Amino acid sequence: MHYRRREVEQVVREIGYDCDVLVIGGGIVGLSTAYAITRAAPGTRVTVLEKEPGPARHQTGRNSGVIHSGIYYRPGSLKARYAARGGAEMVKFCAEYGIAHAVTGKLIVATEKSELPRLHALVQRGRENGIAVRELGAAQIGEYEPEVRGLAAIHVATTGVCDFVGVARQLAEASGAEIRYGTEVTYIDRRPDLGVAVRTGDGTVVRARVLVNCAGLHCDEIARLAGDEPGMRIVPFRGEYYSLGRPSLVNGLVYPVPDPAFPFLGVHLTRGIDGDVHIGPNAVPALAREGYDWRTVRPRELGATLTWPGSWRIARRHWRYGGGELRRSVSKAAFAQAVRRLLPAVNPDDLVPAAAGVRAQAVLRDGTLVDDFLIREGARTVHVLNAPSPAATASLPIGREVGRRVLATLARA
Question: Which terminus in the chain has less CB density within 10 A, N or C?
Answer without folding.
Answer: N
